[in-house]
Amino acid sequence: MSFSAQTTVSDQEPRPDPAPAAVVTSGPDGALFFGGNADDPFFLDDTGANRLVASSIANPGNPNKSLLGFRQGRDTYAGFNTMITAVRVPASLLRGDSQVIGVNFVCQRRFVQLNRGGAVVGEGPYVTVDRQGTPLVNNGLIPPPRKNEYNGASTQDDARGRFDQSITQSLRNLATDDAHIDAILNVHQRNGDILRLDLRVPNFGPQGGNNPGGGFGNMGGRRLVDDVVDAVFTMINNGVPLRDLVNGNEVPFRSEFPFVADPTQPFPPGQNPDDHTRQ
Q1: DSSP secondary structure string, 103-141?
Q2: pTM (predicted TM-score)
Q3: Using one digit for the tens of pLDDT, what is the confidence trace for 191-226?
Q4: How many whole angstroms separate alpha carbon 7 and alpha carbon 23?
Q5: Cα-based distances in Å from 184 to 86, 122, 168, 264, 274
Q6: How far apart are CA 192 and CA 163, in angstroms?
Q7: How many other C-beta atoms can be found within 10 angstroms of the C-beta atom of residue 216?
Q8: Which strand (E) or helix (H) includes residue 197?
């Protein structure tokens, strides 16, 4: 599949009401493509999560779990925009012999050859510099000294156990018991760090789907509305609920492709305006 189309333009003008529709292009096989600026759809108290993980490193096996929600639901990503590339692909193009689809996202760049002055004089093959499968495995469980190694590795490396020891140590630092460590490794490493979608799991409702039986945790993929942070930290916490108290995005998502909300626009000048940012 290939696409060529105008992207949704980001500007500094106040957003008209109602907002214009997103610019979307389609392929002959029914696939859709969107590229442009949008509200950052992730919702999480990043500071709380980082402090919890840091406390588990400083006090292995005895982390301060209250740090995850100590800011009472402050969304680090509220009020910020990001560049979005979204693709909608008919399931018939992805389905093989199984009803389960595995998705592994990678970001690649080319090796470059530099001369002594720093100028690029040659290019090599593409290499993976970042990857993402199951939410928070890369960000939360891989220790910093191994981040680059993990990003450059493959899901086959995961299945061969290359990172099992490091992930196990991270989980023990967080006071995860052996049964939950084994369950996490079974789902997220021993078959590769791949996000799995069972096409038989129903998905319906506004904002791209919000039915309780679908989405993350039910083999229904990872929907924008799914509170993956609470789900992952609860699993790490041996099934006992552990939440950051950020329960949703600060603005509603669209109910049609590309589902992400319009970008946050500049606010009118005034005294102490609220720009929605919550870092």
Answers
A1: E-EEEEEEEEEE-TTS-EEEEEEEEEEEEE-STTIIIII
A2: 0.84
A3: 999 999 999 999 999 999 999 999 998 989 899 999
A4: 6
A5: 28, 43, 9, 36, 40
A6: 10
A7: 18
A8: strand 195-198
